Amino acid sequence: MDSQKRAVLEKQHYKIIGEHSAVKVCHWTKEEMTHDRGCYKQSFYGIESHRCMQMTPTVAQCSENCMFCWRFQDFEEDHIEVEDDPKFILEGAIEAQKKLMSGYRGDARVSPEKWQESQMPKHVAISLTGEPTAYSRLGEYIELCHKAGMTTFLVTNGTNPEVLRKLDPLPTQLYVTIAAPSKEMFTKVCAPIRSNAWEQLMDTLSLLPSLDTRKVIRHTLVKGWTLGFENQYARLDRIADPHFIESKGYVNVGYSRERLTMRNMPSHDEIHEFATRLASELGNYELQSERRDSRVALLVRKGVNRWLPGLERPLEEELRYNLPRNRQPAE
What is the residue extent of each domain of the chain? Predict the structure, then answer.
């Protein structure tokens, strides 16, 4: 890895593993530790935020430079010249996570039991930054995670359909981002470094119905750019036929502030309205949950159980976050 890029990432509290992987503790992992307030994936699917390890095997490789991305980017390459071993990456990631969480030991807000659990990651979010499918040994890495008893969420921009076609095993849950409703808007908003990125995404959407795992389409919505267009998004969603659709509002933080402004942030009510209209367009999805503090709404295909296998959440988990619509979100 370039030494200057490594220095920037380490200053931002990334723990670099080997030459192309990294771990960073998520804001919601910290919130769950100190305030019993986990991320929306906890209230949507039942993961335990304090036991979630956010990592990437491609910290400096991506096929897009999205306007809305708040991570350090400036991606110019979408492949890895010399790859680290998956076992080395996983062991390094777990060790880094333990060190990053070590400061919560003895914190009066954190029970000894919760701290001990945080030292044993149960869930791996392969989504920190970059495009994870650029790592050619991704399947081996996922297999090691599963053998260690951890579930996996893989987030991809869908520009490597040939990787997903051959990926074995598949992650516990596969996310594909559709951040624009048309090729023209995709080119402007996602700034792909390949000329055929949109066509590759379309290939991925056509592939999704054949993949035997839980599938999520994520719409990242930028006000003034990609918010709205429910009919066009619905056409793409029908091709993918996912189990879940997450409609999530852009947040003006990090490096995205160099390209967008606060005016580009949809309110949660606007996200709710988008999801409601999208569900109406699709017909076979229903709005089951939403998080005002994350500006995200979850559509679930009718008849699908959204909880991860073996996990349950009582109604109280929903009531904590789904505030009445006349209440302002706590942000």
Answer: 3-304
Q: Please choose, from the candidates 287, 278, 294, the residue with its C-alpha nearest in 3D space to the C-alpha of residue 330.
A: 294
Architecture of the domain whose range is 3-304: Alpha-Beta Barrel (3.20)
Which positions ≥6 away from 235 have C-beta within 8 Å? none
Scored b (16 or more CB within 10 A) or e, 2-36 reads eeeebeebeeeebbbbbebbbbbbbebbbbbbeee
What is each CA distance from 330 to 36, 244, 268, 284, 295, in whole angstroms? 15, 26, 11, 32, 11
Task: Say whether 188 sits in a helix, a strand or coil.
Answer: helix
The answer to whether the CB of 203 falls within 8 A of the CB of 243 is no
Q: Is the pLDDT of residue 76 over 80?
A: no
User: Quick check: 35 pLDDT over 80?
Assistant: yes
DSSP string, 201-237: HHHHHHHGGGS-SEEEEEEEE-TTTTS--HHHHHHHH
Q: Which residue carries 């109406």 as its tokens? A: 280
Specify the pTM.
Answer: 0.93
Give the rounded distance of the alpha carbon of 297 from its chain centre.
14
Preceding amide of 266 cis, omega within 30: no
| Strand-pair partners of 218 | 177, 246
Output the pLDDT for position 256.
86
Q: Count of CB atoms within 10 A of residue 134's CB?
A: 25
Q: Where are the alpha helices (DSSP H) in 46-196?
A: 86-101, 112-118, 138-147, 161-166, 183-190
Torsion sign over Cα 123, 127, 129, 131: positive
The contacts of residue 91 (CB under 8 Å, 6+ apart) are none
What would the pLDDT profile of 210-240 be if each residue is shown by its tens digit?
999 999 999 999 999 999 999 999 999 999 9
Question: Are 262 and 8 a contacting pair, CB within 8 Å?
Answer: no
pLDDT of 158 > 80? The answer is yes
